[in-house]
Amino acid sequence: MKLLKILFLIILFFPEREIVFGK
After folding, report:
1. Which residues of 5-23 are buried (b: 16+ CB within 10 A; e: fewer)?
2. Is residue 9 a contact partner of residue 1, using CB atoms and an 8 Å limit?
3. What is the CA radius of gyration of the chain?
4. How far apart are CA 1 and CA 18, in angstroms?
5. How far apart are CA 3 and CA 19, in angstroms?
6. Please, are residues 15 and 9 in contact by the beta-carbon 8 Å criterion?
7. pLDDT of 1-23, one tens digit each?
8. Under a CB-based contact definition with an 8 Å cutoff, are residues 7 and 1 in contact?
9. What are phi and psi of 14, to 5 degrees?
10. Is the pTM of the predicted complex or chain greater than 0.70?
11. Smallest Cα–Cα separation from 20: which of 9, 10, 2, 3?
12. d(Cα 2, Cα 23) in Å, to the nearest integer?
């Protein structure tokens, strides 16, 4: 699953993903 790998990289590059998720 390349998409899963890309998503993992995005999470690493964007640790502020919590804001995007609306934590």
Report:
1. eeeeeeeeeeeeeeeeeee
2. no
3. 9
4. 23
5. 21
6. no
7. 799 999 888 878 876 666 666 55
8. no
9. -125, 80
10. no
11. 10
12. 27
